[in-house]
Amino acid sequence: MGKCPSDGGDLIIRQSRYGKRFLGCSNYPKCTVTYPLPQKGIIVPTGEMCQYCGAPLLVMVNGKRKWKFCPNMKCEYNRKDKVEKNKSEN
């Protein structure tokens, strides 16, 4: 899916023991970088890196809807769209 921003390893889709999918570094247990993923839909890597946190940007395809997001939930990339939409509505 992309490179780990912490140590440069590959981020791969993994599944937890409870069946939830997430991105995890291939260098586990040395590197413990993980990102939660949406549980339904297809996830496609874009090859781009987030300008705020360095994580790879992904595209989520769920039916007819597609959107680009950063898997890091605390990243400003995910918040900037909401702020811009609110400003344009007012």
Describe the structure.
By secondary structure, the chain is of the alpha+beta class. The protein has one helix at residues 76-89, and strands at 2-3, 10-15, 21-25, 34-36, 42-49, 56-62, 65-69. The strands form two sheets. A four-stranded antiparallel β-sheet has the order 1-2-3-4, with no helix packed on it. The termini are far apart.
Which descriptors apply to this entry?
90 residues, alpha+beta, four-stranded antiparallel sheet, three-stranded antiparallel sheet, 7 strands
Quick overview of this protein structure:
The chain is α+β, with helices and mostly antiparallel strands and 90 residues long. The protein is 16% helix and 40% strand.
Question: What's the arrangement of secondary structure elements?
Answer:
Layout: E1 2-3, E2 10-15, E3 21-25, E4 34-36, E5 42-49, E6 56-62, E7 65-69, H1 76-89
Antiparallel strand pairs: 1-2, 2-3, 3-4, 5-6, 6-7
Number of strands: 7
Low-confidence stretches: none
The structural class is: alpha+beta
Could you estimate the helical fraction of the residues in percent? 10-25%
Cα-to-Cα separation, first versus last residue: 37 Å
Strand order of the largest sheet: 1-2-3-4
Count up the helices: 1
Order of helices and strands: EEEEEEEH
